[in-house]
Amino acid sequence: MFEPIFDTVNVGGIETARLGRKDLARLVGNICAHYSEQNKAQPFVIFSNNGHAISIYNSDAEAKTQMDQADLVHADGQSVVSFSRWFNKGNAIPERTATTDMIHDIPNFYEGTLKHFLLGGKESSVTKAADVLAQSYPNFQVVGVQHGYFNEAEETAICDAINAAKPDVLWVGLGKPKEQIFCIRNKQRLNVPVIISCGGCYNYITGEYPRAPMWMQKAGMEWLFRMANDPKKLFWRYAVTNPHAIYCVLKHGRAQKNVAADVN
After folding, report:
1. Is the pLDDT of residue 264 over 60?
2. Whole-angstrom distance between the N-terminal and C-terminal Cα of the chain?
């Protein structure tokens, strides 16, 4: 039986994988390659860590419970990579693994063909994203799509449709914390090797949302670019969550440092 092995570092209270883009993509592929439906193995659930996630994790008990049930949390935000260096210089996250990159990294860095199911967003967006990915990568096989405008009563039928399509990877783009709640609530219903939460990823694939220039991404300023493009939606989110996330990182980092000092 294949056991995914990776190290983690605590960033803002969230245990976050110390994996680079290639290693994370290949880990996903290897989990899928070793999955056996006959073993009744539960899906391997992957969530993301960024400033918004840190703030929610430390202020919403339900969101914290959902995040803690993930099998792996990766560094979606460049800020998380930077935060990991504050108190863990020799144990930091090597690079950002943005979900908007990961969905391309998997077919680029894992040679095998994987079947994907895209859930979330508007019907037009998720369908177009599926077309773009399938046309861009011969080893990215889309076996189904489902828009994100449904209620809890419809989830059983949706899970049945996903199982019937037999994907290797289920992408769930419903936004935080709804997508985490969906993943954990339906984990036992789904016969898929890997589930990955992906927020508004489909809109970036289709070009509906622009990516920040590379220099802003590397500087950890992609949030500023996004806010400038949609201030009504994002100004207050970042104005509140960014300072709170920094406070949470400092709080947890100092607590870890004090524990280490006591042990020594």
Report:
1. no
2. 37
Enumerate residues 6+ apart whose C-beta is below 8 A from 66: 47, 177, 180, 181, 183, 184
Q: Assign 37 a pLDDT band (cuts: 50, 70, 90).
A: low
Map out the domains of the chain as residue ranges: 8-263
Q: What pTM does this model have? A: 0.93
| 3-state secondary structure string across the chain | CCCCCCCEEEECCEEEECCCHHHHHHHHHHHHHHCCHHHCCCCEEEEEECHHHHHHHCCCHHHHHHHHCCCEEEECCHHHHHHHHHHCCCCCCCCCCCHHHHHHHHHHHCCCCEEEEEEECCHHHHHHHHHHHHHHCCCEEEEEEECCCCCHHHHHHHHHHHHHHCCCEEEEECCCCHHHHHHHHHCCCCCCCEEEECCCHHHHHHCCCCCCCHHHHHCCCHHHHHHHHCHHHHHHHHHHHHHHHHHHHHHHHHHHHHHHHHHC
pLDDT digits (tens, 9 = 90+) for 80-115: 999 999 988 788 999 999 999 999 999 999 999 999
Q: At residue 169, does pLDDT exceed 70?
A: yes
